[in-house]
Amino acid sequence: MSARLAFDRVACLRGERLLFEGMSFALAPGGAALLTGPNGAGKSSLMRIAAGLLPASAGTVERGGGLAFAGEAAALDARLPLAQALGYWARLNGADGGDVDAALDAMGIANLAPVPVRMLSTGQRKRAALARVIAGKAGIWLLDEPGNGLDTAATARLAAAIAAHRAGGGIVMVATHQPIDLPDASAIALGSQP
Ligand SMILES: Nc1ncnc2c1ncn2[C@@H]1O[C@H](COP(=O)(O)OP(=O)(O)OP(=O)(O)O)[C@@H](O)[C@H]1O
């Protein structure tokens, strides 16, 4: 896996407000970045720029190795049983049913495979969103507040999944207010905004 994520002098202007500028970093295979900052500082905006969902106001972004983004919404079809909803994404990403089963196992929700997504609890839905990322096999994982709603066991499962991803040459960028176990991560602290 030749994952790579690099920002070169990236700026983000939203409305009239300059959230950040001159942002440069490069993550190589196995690399991690931990993005912190108060509400409104621009963490989600930076993640969206990294994902290619929001254009940078200046600078360049380089990505390699495919990308999976887990934001606030689970991005799973609410009407479908969980395994099928995940299967839809897995097929798009060149993964298969075995990858979905492994991802469900990794997040401890194999027993929920036949349950429609709309019936899942908040934490179960969050686990499912992370299972979608795990099943997808992308080189770059962008996780916006991945710990929100997770209990202690699920938080440990997430940390283990991230460690395995990095050990296989994957890259992860995590934006969070919560403490998370991310050894040797580059720290990116965004400033406060009025
Ligand atoms: N579409 C938009 N147009 C203009 N400004 C926006 C838009 N979306 C977000 N913003 C502003 O950009 C700023 C940064 O928002 P962002 O969601 O990136 O912050 P954040 O650090 O993720 O915050 P939080 O910790 O609350 O999730 C906020 O002031 C927000 O109001």
Written overview of the protein:
The chain has 5 helices and 8 strands, in the order E-E-E-H-E-E-H-H-H-E-H-E-E. It has one domain (4-189): P-loop containing nucleotide triphosphate hydrolases (Rossmann fold), CATH 3.40.50.300. Helix 5 links the parallel strand 6 and strand 7. It is α/β, with parallel strands linked by helices. The strands form 2 sheets. Strands 5-6-7-3-8 form a 5-stranded parallel β-sheet, with helices on both faces. It starts with a strand and ends in a 5-residue tail after the last strand. Residues 14-15, 19, 37, 39-45, 193 line the site of adenosine-5'-triphosphate. InterPro entries: AAA+_ATPase (IPR003593), ABC_transporter-like_ATP-bd (IPR003439), ABC_transptr_haem_export_CcmA (IPR005895), P-loop_NTPase (IPR027417). Keywords: ATP-binding, Cytochrome c-type biogenesis, Membrane, Nucleotide-binding, Translocase, Transport.
Give start-end ranges of low-pLDDT stretches: none
The value of Rg in angstroms is 16 Å
Q: How helix-rich are the residues, as a percent range?
A: 25-40%
Small-molecule components bound = adenosine-5'-triphosphate
Average of the residue pLDDT scores: 92
Number of domains: 1
Order of helices and strands: EEEHEEHHHEHEE
* CATH architecture grouping: 3-Layer(aba) Sandwich
Distance between the termini: 41 Å
Protein name: Heme ABC exporter ATP-binding protein CcmA
Keywords: ATP-binding, Cytochrome c-type biogenesis, Membrane, Nucleotide-binding, Translocase, Transport
GO biological process, one term: cytochrome complex assembly
Organism: Rhizorhabdus dicambivorans
